[in-house]
Prior knowledge:
The structure holds three protein chains of three kinds. Chain A is 77% helix and 1% strand. By secondary structure, chain A is mainly α. In chain A, β1 and β2 (57-58) form a beta hairpin. In chain B, the strands form two sheets. In chain B, strands 1, 2, 3, 4, 6, 7, 8, 9, 11 and 12 form a ten-stranded mixed beta sheet that branches. A two-stranded parallel ribbon of chain B has the order 5-10. The termini of chain B are far apart. The interface between A and C is large, with 78 and 78 residues.
Amino acid sequence: MRIPPRITQGLAVSAMWVLASLTLGVLAFIIAYILWHGLPHVTWTFLTESPKAMGREGGVLPMILGTAWVTGLAVLIAAPIGVATAIYLTEYTREGRLTAVIRFGADCLAGIPSIIFGLFGFVFFVITLGMGLSIISGALTLTLMVLPTIIRTSEEAIRAVPQSFRDVSFGLGSTRWQMVTQVVLRSALPGIGTGIVLSIGRSISETAAVMLTAGSALGFPHTAFDSSRTLALHFYVLSREGLSMSNAYATASVLIIAILLVNLAAYWLMRRFVAKVA
Amino acid sequence: MMKWLMIFAALLVALLVVSFGLGGRKEGALEIIGSTSVEPFAEMLAQEYEKTHPGRYVNVQGGGSTAGIQAAINGIADIGTCSRALKPEETGFTTFLLARDGLAVVVHPSNPVSNLTHQQIQRIFAGDVANWREVGGDDRAIHVITREEGSGTREAFMKLVMGKARVSRKALTQESNGAVKELVRNDPGGIGYMSLGLAHGLKLVAVDGVAPSAEAALSGQYRLVRPFLFITRGAPSERAKAFIDFVLWPPAQKLLEQEGLVRAK
Amino acid sequence: MRREKIISLLLMFAALSAISGLALITAFIFKEGLPIMMQVGLGQFILSSNWYPTEGEFGIFPMIVGSLAVTAGAMVIGVVFGLACAVLLTQFSPPRLVSIVKPSIELLAGIPSVVYGFMGVVILVPFIRDTLGPAMVSLHLASDPGPGLSVLAASIVLGIMVLPTITSISVDALQAAPRSYREGSLALGATEWQTTHRVLLRAARSGIVAAIILGMGRAVGETMAVIMVAGNTLDVPHSIFDPVRTLTSNIALEMGYAAGDHRKALFATGIVLFVIIMVLNTIALAVSRRRAGKAVAR
């Protein structure tokens, strides 16, 4: 007996709905679980105090600062260089084997496990260059980690700008740089911004690469040469060693909220991009 | 467009100036890196030190004893810490004995086994005993938990307990005392080894009839004891020496004793 | 005109620094790792199960099996759930629902790996150890419930982590299929589901395969979550309830203290990972080029 197609469809769609609901359910559960246990402990004191007794008490101010510095420095260095590279590759050179190789290289490096960047950063920045476990070591390592992603997303955003825009600009007598800044970048900016914002998100969450480059000092970082612990690493240590579950949940809550904000920014930027170029 | 770039550049410059301008690592904190067994105690002493010496900062980090030794060699740490004696090939260091610590064999609080012989522990960790009932416990698989190879605690365990035997390949590897503690605390079938001073909340197994305690370690009855060392490459720097003197003082030593360590002298 | 020249040079400088920086990493990894691989012997390095670095023995076979096992498990979950979401989103959902569901799935990708690992430790591992494992043993489907830290735990956690990648790239692939395919199929009287699985999935096949391969790359590269739930043993796993160590976990656990040959061996492990990613990326590139070629040929 052949099953009528309508019934097969009904079954298939129901099955898919179950799977999709499970997926969203897991997401909702994770976020709810962490925030439920953690938000009550995210007090003003928690956000502005330093940790005591290895993190059992006190707050996470040095971690917030450390995360901000490491991520901030990394993106401030990687973004201009990455975007400039993308501009150079698309607007100032001709499409050829070299650019294809560079693109493949960037794609590969975008996929390399972060721990390998950490290993490199540890041996090169921390030891060989003598920077020690420090924010700057961590930031430079993260720079190398997010650079391929920024180059690729910027490149795709720039290439998505219609050629007609460029032709019109040249037709009106602009120089190449004027065309790039006034026309191409203006249209590609939301797409480029999305790539940068997503890199920020990735940097904030990164643990493996910062563990052995920025170190895990609990103290207040005074300079970029000080070692500092990021929020993600602090959460890892607190939960793994059972030092303080309430503080662990609270740290995770701060992390998740930061990521949520970053994702919202990326989404908002992306919508503007689609609206502009479509 | 140019305005944004200007702001961007200004931010970058400002951040870098603030970072570099405040001086390099020379004015920074004293870096202490190494054993995860020593870490909580060093951290405690560091907080005391910072309280009594305002303006001085001490950063304590883990990573394991061998990592601490490496950090001292590489210059990333001012002081490396380890929870085992130095090996013969590890030369060129000045060592300071901070305290001594018992090495405890720990199991889940619900585990009925209270005493194991030296040989039994050896065989369990080598993987030759698979079920708790073979040593007088429940019918439950034994889950052996060990540390990473660079751990001083592991080194001490190998030297004091395992001897020539290797730890089973099936052993679950954790990277710090805290991680071992958490795992044993949650797994009814688990058995591991860790710093006696940190083993609160777990069941401590008596070895050859001797229950582990700071007193038993001090008297020599409990034989699984290892040194907590502060090491520096060559002679310690002035800042390092100041902290080392601080921790070897009687008041600091007393604090360590209260926390369950065995004093150095 | 001179300003243009200067700008052009500055951009080239930036591009060169970026490229040389990235080339530096690649060169460094190979320079550090290749000698030890040659010294130990490539076959020995990859096929030996003896990882005793302090005694000079460097065999990463258990870790290779570990990475493969955990990745395979992750792909089962990632593909089943991820594709289901992708198909639902593109074929069976009203646009309003899509605008809520799609960003939510992308949000899954943003949660830090240590949080996933934590949830695995708190919920999944005890469940496997105390409930699922014993149940499987009593059903004679497994011989040993294991400590909960297992291939299964790591697979589930990783599967959830790579799901968003698979979903979003598959969505792109499905949406890139020409509309005429869908409309033509429906016009011939097929249901949406028949259209989907007989026509569209086939048309988007290359893109979906690319999605799966990229997902695989991400699963292979994950470190923190795996350290937390996989158990990190040095033995080759025999069942999904056995603990396991992956290539990435091995590097993370040991790089803090490794020196000399041991450290070089970790770089050599990095080379293995590098090669795996390069192979996966090449396949993905080739597969998606076929898709582009096909679409153009139409």
